[in-house]
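Re: adenosine monophosphate structure - here you go.
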Amino acid sequence: MKILIVGRGAREHALAWKAQQSLLVEKVYCAPGNAGTGEFCTNLNANTIDQLVDQATALGIDYTIVGPENYLVDGIVERFRQLGLKIFGPTAEAAKLEGSKSFTKEILIENNIPTARAEVFDSSRRANNFALRNDMNSWVIKADGLASGKGVLLPKTCAEAVSFVLKNMAGENQKILFEERLQGREVSVMAFTDGYNLSLLPPAQDHKRVFDNNGGPNTGGMGSFSTPELIEKNLISHISEEILKPTLIGLRKRGITYTGLLYAGLMITSEGPKVLEFNCRLGDPETQAVLPLLKSDLIEVMIASDSGRLLGKQVLWEEKSCCSVVMASKGYPGDYETGKRIYGLEKVPPEILVFHAGTKLHGKNTITDGGRVLSVTAVANSLEEAIAKSYRGVHKIHFEGAHFRRDIGK
Ligand code: AMP
Ligand code: GLY
Protein backbone atom coordinates (compact mmCIF):
# COMPACT_ATOMS: atom_id res chain seq x y z
CA MET A 1 0.00 0.00 0.00
CA LYS A 2 0.95 3.61 -0.50
CA ILE A 3 0.20 5.57 2.65
CA LEU A 4 -0.25 9.33 2.98
CA ILE A 5 0.25 11.00 6.36
CA VAL A 6 -1.24 14.50 6.60
CA GLY A 7 0.53 16.98 8.89
CA ARG A 8 3.97 18.27 9.77
CA GLY A 9 4.54 17.62 13.48
CA ALA A 10 6.22 15.02 15.65
CA ARG A 11 2.92 13.13 15.90
CA GLU A 12 2.96 12.74 12.12
CA HIS A 13 6.63 11.68 12.15
CA ALA A 14 5.72 9.00 14.71
CA LEU A 15 2.77 7.87 12.55
CA ALA A 16 4.96 7.71 9.44
CA TRP A 17 7.65 5.78 11.34
CA LYS A 18 5.10 3.24 12.58
CA ALA A 19 3.32 2.99 9.22
CA GLN A 20 6.68 2.28 7.57
CA GLN A 21 7.02 -0.85 9.76
CA SER A 22 3.73 -2.31 8.51
CA LEU A 23 4.00 -5.39 6.31
CA LEU A 24 1.16 -3.96 4.24
CA VAL A 25 3.10 -0.82 3.36
CA GLU A 26 5.29 -0.26 0.34
CA LYS A 27 5.79 3.50 0.55
CA VAL A 28 4.91 6.36 2.88
CA TYR A 29 4.25 9.95 1.78
CA CYS A 30 3.90 12.91 4.15
CA ALA A 31 2.19 16.19 3.41
CA PRO A 32 3.93 18.44 4.11
CA GLY A 33 6.12 16.51 6.58
CA ASN A 34 9.43 17.78 7.95
CA ALA A 35 13.15 16.99 7.79
CA GLY A 36 12.63 13.85 9.90
CA THR A 37 9.92 12.35 7.71
CA GLY A 38 11.95 13.33 4.64
CA GLU A 39 14.62 10.82 5.70
CA PHE A 40 12.43 7.81 4.87
CA CYS A 41 9.25 9.17 3.24
CA THR A 42 8.53 11.37 0.26
CA ASN A 43 7.39 14.77 1.49
CA LEU A 44 4.68 16.36 -0.65
CA ASN A 45 3.98 20.03 -1.03
CA ALA A 46 0.28 19.86 -0.21
CA ASN A 47 -1.57 21.66 2.55
CA THR A 48 -5.19 22.27 1.59
CA ILE A 49 -7.83 19.55 1.25
CA ASP A 50 -7.99 20.24 -2.51
CA GLN A 51 -4.24 19.81 -2.88
CA LEU A 52 -4.31 16.63 -0.77
CA VAL A 53 -7.14 15.15 -2.84
CA ASP A 54 -5.23 15.94 -6.05
CA GLN A 55 -1.98 14.41 -4.81
CA ALA A 56 -3.67 11.31 -3.37
CA THR A 57 -5.42 10.72 -6.70
CA ALA A 58 -2.35 11.39 -8.81
CA LEU A 59 -0.09 9.13 -6.74
CA GLY A 60 -2.61 6.33 -6.29
CA ILE A 61 -2.54 6.58 -2.49
CA ASP A 62 -4.27 3.57 -0.93
CA TYR A 63 -4.76 4.91 2.57
CA THR A 64 -4.56 8.33 4.22
CA ILE A 65 -4.04 9.11 7.91
CA VAL A 66 -4.78 12.62 9.14
CA GLY A 67 -2.86 14.14 12.06
CA PRO A 68 -4.37 17.60 12.72
CA GLU A 69 -8.00 18.18 13.67
CA ASN A 70 -8.74 21.10 11.35
CA TYR A 71 -8.80 18.86 8.25
CA LEU A 72 -11.23 16.48 9.95
CA VAL A 73 -13.50 19.26 11.18
CA ASP A 74 -13.44 20.69 7.63
CA GLY A 75 -14.61 17.39 6.12
CA ILE A 76 -11.50 15.82 4.57
CA VAL A 77 -12.87 12.33 5.29
CA GLU A 78 -16.05 12.74 3.26
CA ARG A 79 -14.16 14.48 0.43
CA PHE A 80 -11.77 11.53 0.15
CA ARG A 81 -14.49 8.88 0.47
CA GLN A 82 -16.65 10.53 -2.20
CA LEU A 83 -13.77 9.87 -4.59
CA GLY A 84 -13.33 6.31 -3.41
CA LEU A 85 -10.14 7.17 -1.50
CA LYS A 86 -9.70 5.32 1.81
CA ILE A 87 -8.95 7.46 4.85
CA PHE A 88 -8.75 7.03 8.63
CA GLY A 89 -10.76 9.41 10.79
CA PRO A 90 -14.21 10.72 11.66
CA THR A 91 -16.44 12.68 9.28
CA ALA A 92 -16.98 16.41 9.90
CA GLU A 93 -20.26 15.66 11.66
CA ALA A 94 -18.51 13.30 14.09
CA ALA A 95 -15.47 15.57 14.45
CA LYS A 96 -17.79 18.17 16.01
CA LEU A 97 -16.89 16.35 19.19
CA GLU A 98 -13.68 18.36 19.01
CA GLY A 99 -14.92 21.19 16.78
CA SER A 100 -17.70 22.39 19.07
CA LYS A 101 -17.47 22.32 22.84
CA SER A 102 -21.17 23.19 23.22
CA PHE A 103 -22.15 20.23 20.99
CA THR A 104 -19.96 17.94 23.09
CA LYS A 105 -21.46 19.26 26.31
CA GLU A 106 -24.95 18.44 24.98
CA ILE A 107 -23.91 14.87 24.13
CA LEU A 108 -22.30 14.43 27.54
CA ILE A 109 -25.28 15.75 29.48
CA GLU A 110 -27.91 13.90 27.40
CA ASN A 111 -26.11 10.64 28.11
CA ASN A 112 -25.23 11.19 31.78
CA ILE A 113 -21.51 11.09 31.10
CA PRO A 114 -19.49 12.66 33.93
CA THR A 115 -18.17 16.11 33.02
CA ALA A 116 -17.83 19.57 34.53
CA ARG A 117 -21.06 21.52 34.95
CA ALA A 118 -21.30 24.26 32.34
CA GLU A 119 -23.19 27.41 31.40
CA VAL A 120 -23.33 28.15 27.67
CA PHE A 121 -23.86 31.70 26.39
CA ASP A 122 -24.49 33.00 22.90
CA SER A 123 -24.57 36.65 23.97
CA SER A 124 -21.45 38.44 25.20
CA ARG A 125 -23.60 40.69 27.40
CA ARG A 126 -24.98 37.72 29.32
CA ALA A 127 -21.59 36.03 29.43
CA ASN A 128 -20.03 39.14 30.92
CA ASN A 129 -22.82 39.44 33.47
CA PHE A 130 -22.07 35.89 34.50
CA ALA A 131 -18.35 36.74 34.80
CA LEU A 132 -19.11 39.74 37.00
CA ARG A 133 -21.48 37.87 39.33
CA ASN A 134 -19.35 34.80 39.98
CA ASP A 135 -15.95 34.06 41.48
CA MET A 136 -13.91 33.44 38.35
CA ASN A 137 -11.37 31.36 40.29
CA SER A 138 -13.95 28.56 40.32
CA TRP A 139 -14.60 28.62 36.57
CA VAL A 140 -12.87 27.87 33.30
CA ILE A 141 -13.91 29.73 30.12
CA LYS A 142 -13.89 27.99 26.76
CA ALA A 143 -14.43 29.30 23.27
CA ASP A 144 -16.82 27.01 21.41
CA GLY A 145 -14.83 26.26 18.24
CA LEU A 146 -11.31 25.13 17.31
CA ALA A 147 -8.72 27.52 18.71
CA SER A 148 -5.33 25.77 18.36
CA GLY A 149 -4.99 25.39 22.11
CA LYS A 150 -5.78 29.08 22.78
CA GLY A 151 -9.49 28.60 23.44
CA VAL A 152 -9.38 27.90 27.17
CA LEU A 153 -8.78 30.36 30.02
CA LEU A 154 -8.47 29.67 33.73
CA PRO A 155 -9.19 33.28 34.79
CA LYS A 156 -7.82 34.78 37.98
CA THR A 157 -9.92 37.95 37.80
CA CYS A 158 -13.23 39.17 36.39
CA ALA A 159 -11.37 41.62 34.15
CA GLU A 160 -9.42 38.77 32.55
CA ALA A 161 -12.66 36.81 32.07
CA VAL A 162 -14.44 39.75 30.45
CA SER A 163 -11.61 40.47 28.05
CA PHE A 164 -11.48 36.78 27.01
CA VAL A 165 -15.25 36.81 26.42
CA LEU A 166 -15.02 39.94 24.28
CA LYS A 167 -12.11 38.60 22.26
CA ASN A 168 -13.78 35.26 21.59
CA MET A 169 -17.28 36.56 20.88
CA ALA A 170 -16.30 39.30 18.45
CA GLY A 171 -17.70 37.48 15.39
CA GLU A 172 -21.28 36.43 14.70
CA ASN A 173 -22.96 33.30 16.09
CA GLN A 174 -20.23 32.76 18.64
CA LYS A 175 -20.78 30.74 21.76
CA ILE A 176 -18.80 30.59 24.97
CA LEU A 177 -18.85 28.11 27.84
CA PHE A 178 -18.20 28.71 31.51
CA GLU A 179 -17.22 25.42 33.05
CA GLU A 180 -16.87 24.48 36.70
CA ARG A 181 -13.14 24.29 37.49
CA LEU A 182 -12.25 20.70 38.36
CA GLN A 183 -9.38 19.60 40.59
CA GLY A 184 -7.40 16.44 40.08
CA ARG A 185 -4.93 14.69 37.84
CA GLU A 186 -5.24 14.94 34.06
CA VAL A 187 -4.88 11.92 31.80
CA SER A 188 -5.43 11.29 28.12
CA VAL A 189 -7.18 8.10 27.08
CA MET A 190 -7.28 7.35 23.38
CA ALA A 191 -9.12 4.56 21.61
CA PHE A 192 -9.49 3.20 18.11
CA THR A 193 -13.17 2.81 17.33
CA ASP A 194 -15.40 1.59 14.55
CA GLY A 195 -18.36 3.46 16.05
CA TYR A 196 -19.46 0.48 18.18
CA ASN A 197 -16.37 -1.23 19.53
CA LEU A 198 -13.35 0.30 21.20
CA SER A 199 -9.72 -0.69 21.43
CA LEU A 200 -7.93 1.44 23.99
CA LEU A 201 -4.36 2.67 23.67
CA PRO A 202 -2.18 2.78 26.80
CA PRO A 203 -3.05 5.89 28.84
CA ALA A 204 -0.76 8.89 28.55
CA GLN A 205 -0.22 12.23 30.17
CA ASP A 206 1.04 15.38 28.55
CA HIS A 207 2.76 18.37 30.11
CA LYS A 208 1.05 21.47 28.77
CA ARG A 209 2.83 24.28 30.62
CA VAL A 210 6.08 25.60 29.27
CA PHE A 211 8.18 25.49 32.46
CA ASP A 212 9.07 22.88 35.09
CA ASN A 213 6.56 22.29 37.89
CA ASN A 214 3.75 23.42 35.56
CA GLY A 215 4.85 27.05 35.43
CA GLY A 216 4.29 29.57 32.67
CA PRO A 217 1.76 29.63 29.86
CA ASN A 218 0.13 26.68 28.10
CA THR A 219 1.83 25.26 25.02
CA GLY A 220 0.92 22.63 22.45
CA GLY A 221 2.63 20.20 24.86
CA MET A 222 6.20 20.09 26.17
CA GLY A 223 6.38 16.33 26.53
CA SER A 224 4.42 13.25 27.46
CA PHE A 225 4.75 9.83 28.95
CA SER A 226 2.92 6.56 29.17
CA THR A 227 3.35 3.94 31.84
CA PRO A 228 1.11 1.05 32.93
CA GLU A 229 0.85 2.54 36.43
CA LEU A 230 -0.64 5.80 35.19
CA ILE A 231 -4.22 4.59 35.74
CA GLU A 232 -5.35 1.42 37.50
CA LYS A 233 -6.84 -1.27 35.22
CA ASN A 234 -10.32 -1.04 36.78
CA LEU A 235 -10.40 2.70 36.24
CA ILE A 236 -9.52 2.15 32.59
CA SER A 237 -12.48 -0.17 32.10
CA HIS A 238 -14.67 2.31 33.99
CA ILE A 239 -13.57 5.03 31.52
CA SER A 240 -14.30 2.75 28.60
CA GLU A 241 -17.74 1.66 29.85
CA GLU A 242 -18.98 4.88 31.47
CA ILE A 243 -17.42 7.52 29.24
CA LEU A 244 -16.26 6.30 25.83
CA LYS A 245 -19.03 3.78 25.04
CA PRO A 246 -21.90 6.08 26.10
CA THR A 247 -20.36 8.82 23.94
CA LEU A 248 -20.44 6.54 20.87
CA ILE A 249 -24.02 5.55 21.72
CA GLY A 250 -25.02 9.19 22.25
CA LEU A 251 -23.63 10.08 18.84
CA ARG A 252 -25.40 7.12 17.20
CA LYS A 253 -28.68 8.31 18.72
CA ARG A 254 -28.14 11.43 16.63
CA GLY A 255 -27.38 9.36 13.55
CA ILE A 256 -23.61 9.81 13.76
CA THR A 257 -21.27 6.82 13.65
CA TYR A 258 -17.86 7.91 14.93
CA THR A 259 -14.97 6.00 13.39
CA GLY A 260 -11.24 6.57 13.73
CA LEU A 261 -9.53 7.63 16.90
CA LEU A 262 -11.35 9.08 19.88
CA TYR A 263 -9.30 11.01 22.42
CA ALA A 264 -10.71 11.82 25.84
CA GLY A 265 -8.99 14.44 27.98
CA LEU A 266 -10.02 13.52 31.51
CA MET A 267 -9.65 14.91 34.99
CA ILE A 268 -9.44 12.19 37.63
CA THR A 269 -11.36 13.94 40.41
CA SER A 270 -12.26 12.72 43.89
CA GLU A 271 -15.64 11.79 42.36
CA GLY A 272 -14.04 9.78 39.57
CA PRO A 273 -12.96 10.63 36.02
CA LYS A 274 -14.72 13.51 34.26
CA VAL A 275 -14.46 14.66 30.66
CA LEU A 276 -12.59 17.92 30.01
CA GLU A 277 -12.58 17.60 26.25
CA PHE A 278 -12.68 15.22 23.34
CA ASN A 279 -10.31 15.31 20.40
CA CYS A 280 -11.12 13.65 17.12
CA ARG A 281 -7.57 12.46 16.35
CA LEU A 282 -4.40 11.26 18.02
CA GLY A 283 -2.99 13.61 20.66
CA ASP A 284 0.22 15.52 20.19
CA PRO A 285 2.55 14.89 22.11
CA GLU A 286 0.78 11.78 23.53
CA THR A 287 1.17 9.88 20.26
CA GLN A 288 4.95 10.12 20.47
CA ALA A 289 4.84 8.38 23.88
CA VAL A 290 2.28 5.74 22.91
CA LEU A 291 2.95 4.55 19.35
CA PRO A 292 6.44 3.23 20.21
CA LEU A 293 4.63 0.75 22.51
CA LEU A 294 2.44 -0.67 19.74
CA LYS A 295 3.40 -4.23 18.79
CA SER A 296 0.57 -4.82 16.29
CA ASP A 297 0.43 -3.52 12.75
CA LEU A 298 -0.81 0.11 12.87
CA ILE A 299 -2.33 0.06 9.40
CA GLU A 300 -4.25 -3.18 10.07
CA VAL A 301 -5.72 -1.69 13.24
CA MET A 302 -6.69 1.52 11.50
CA ILE A 303 -8.35 -0.29 8.61
CA ALA A 304 -10.28 -2.46 11.06
CA SER A 305 -11.54 0.71 12.81
CA ASP A 306 -12.84 2.43 9.73
CA SER A 307 -14.39 -0.66 8.21
CA GLY A 308 -16.45 -1.76 11.22
CA ARG A 309 -14.23 -4.74 11.97
CA LEU A 310 -12.68 -3.84 15.30
CA LEU A 311 -14.64 -6.46 17.28
CA GLY A 312 -12.31 -9.29 18.29
CA LYS A 313 -9.30 -7.58 16.70
CA GLN A 314 -6.32 -8.15 18.97
CA VAL A 315 -4.17 -5.08 19.37
CA LEU A 316 -0.97 -5.77 21.27
CA TRP A 317 1.03 -3.25 23.27
CA GLU A 318 4.32 -3.54 25.15
CA GLU A 319 3.76 -3.45 28.91
CA LYS A 320 6.55 -0.89 29.13
CA SER A 321 6.98 2.82 29.73
CA CYS A 322 7.75 5.53 27.25
CA CYS A 323 8.85 9.12 27.75
CA SER A 324 8.96 11.85 25.11
CA VAL A 325 10.64 15.22 25.77
CA VAL A 326 9.95 18.20 23.53
CA MET A 327 12.81 20.52 22.58
CA ALA A 328 11.44 23.93 21.64
CA SER A 329 12.68 27.17 20.10
CA LYS A 330 13.68 30.09 22.31
CA GLY A 331 10.58 32.16 23.07
CA TYR A 332 8.04 29.40 22.36
CA PRO A 333 5.02 29.47 23.02
CA GLY A 334 5.43 33.19 22.31
CA ASP A 335 7.33 34.58 19.33
CA TYR A 336 10.40 32.65 18.28
CA GLU A 337 13.00 32.68 15.54
CA THR A 338 13.54 29.81 13.13
CA GLY A 339 16.43 28.78 10.88
CA LYS A 340 18.80 27.70 13.69
CA ARG A 341 21.08 24.83 12.78
CA ILE A 342 20.45 21.67 14.80
CA TYR A 343 23.63 19.86 15.91
CA GLY A 344 24.17 16.38 17.30
CA LEU A 345 21.25 14.45 15.79
CA GLU A 346 23.71 11.86 14.48
CA LYS A 347 25.09 11.33 18.00
CA VAL A 348 21.78 10.06 19.37
CA PRO A 349 21.92 6.25 19.66
CA PRO A 350 19.34 4.38 17.54
CA GLU A 351 17.40 3.06 20.53
CA ILE A 352 16.40 6.67 21.28
CA LEU A 353 13.78 7.93 18.82
CA VAL A 354 13.93 11.53 17.67
CA PHE A 355 10.60 12.56 16.14
CA HIS A 356 10.89 15.84 14.28
CA ALA A 357 8.29 18.61 14.42
CA GLY A 358 9.42 22.10 13.28
CA THR A 359 12.49 21.12 11.25
CA LYS A 360 13.55 21.38 7.64
CA LEU A 361 16.57 20.71 5.52
CA HIS A 362 18.78 23.58 4.45
CA GLY A 363 21.38 22.13 2.11
CA LYS A 364 22.82 19.26 4.11
CA ASN A 365 21.93 20.78 7.47
CA THR A 366 18.79 20.33 9.53
CA ILE A 367 17.47 23.65 10.80
CA THR A 368 14.63 24.69 13.09
CA ASP A 369 11.37 25.64 11.43
CA GLY A 370 8.78 25.91 14.21
CA GLY A 371 8.10 26.40 17.92
CA ARG A 372 8.25 22.79 18.91
CA VAL A 373 11.27 21.32 17.15
CA LEU A 374 11.86 17.73 18.30
CA SER A 375 10.24 15.04 20.48
CA VAL A 376 13.05 12.93 21.94
CA THR A 377 11.57 9.59 22.91
CA ALA A 378 12.62 6.39 24.65
CA VAL A 379 10.98 3.13 25.73
CA ALA A 380 12.19 1.17 28.77
CA ASN A 381 11.03 -1.36 31.34
CA SER A 382 10.38 1.31 33.96
CA LEU A 383 9.31 4.92 33.71
CA GLU A 384 12.49 6.07 35.49
CA GLU A 385 14.64 4.35 32.87
CA ALA A 386 12.55 5.73 30.02
CA ILE A 387 12.94 9.25 31.42
CA ALA A 388 16.71 8.90 31.90
CA LYS A 389 17.10 7.43 28.43
CA SER A 390 15.14 10.15 26.65
CA TYR A 391 17.11 12.90 28.46
CA ARG A 392 20.34 11.18 27.39
CA GLY A 393 19.12 11.81 23.85
CA VAL A 394 18.16 15.42 24.60
CA HIS A 395 21.64 16.18 25.94
CA LYS A 396 23.27 15.07 22.67
CA ILE A 397 21.30 17.66 20.66
CA HIS A 398 21.94 21.41 20.50
CA PHE A 399 20.52 24.42 18.74
CA GLU A 400 20.69 28.08 19.67
CA GLY A 401 18.08 28.93 22.30
CA ALA A 402 16.78 25.36 22.67
CA HIS A 403 14.65 24.87 25.76
CA PHE A 404 12.92 21.88 27.28
CA ARG A 405 11.35 20.85 30.56
CA ARG A 406 13.48 18.82 32.91
CA ASP A 407 10.56 17.12 34.67
CA ILE A 408 8.77 15.21 31.91
CA GLY A 409 7.34 12.01 33.35
CA LYS A 410 7.53 13.25 36.93
P1 AMP B 1 -9.23 21.62 26.96
O1 AMP B 1 -8.71 22.13 25.65
O2 AMP B 1 -10.72 21.71 27.10
O3 AMP B 1 -8.68 20.29 27.35
O4 AMP B 1 -8.58 22.58 28.05
C1 AMP B 1 -7.21 22.83 28.10
C2 AMP B 1 -6.69 22.66 29.51
O5 AMP B 1 -7.41 23.52 30.40
C3 AMP B 1 -6.93 21.27 30.07
O6 AMP B 1 -5.92 20.39 29.69
C4 AMP B 1 -6.95 21.55 31.55
O7 AMP B 1 -5.65 21.66 32.06
C5 AMP B 1 -7.63 22.88 31.64
N1 AMP B 1 -9.08 22.69 31.85
C6 AMP B 1 -10.03 22.58 30.91
N2 AMP B 1 -11.24 22.43 31.46
C7 AMP B 1 -11.07 22.43 32.79
C8 AMP B 1 -11.95 22.31 33.91
N3 AMP B 1 -13.26 22.18 33.76
N4 AMP B 1 -11.39 22.34 35.13
C9 AMP B 1 -10.07 22.52 35.31
N5 AMP B 1 -9.18 22.64 34.30
C10 AMP B 1 -9.68 22.59 33.05
N1 GLY C 1 -2.26 16.83 23.79
C1 GLY C 1 -3.46 17.50 23.53
C2 GLY C 1 -3.85 17.55 22.13
O1 GLY C 1 -3.35 16.83 21.30
O2 GLY C 1 -4.73 18.34 21.82
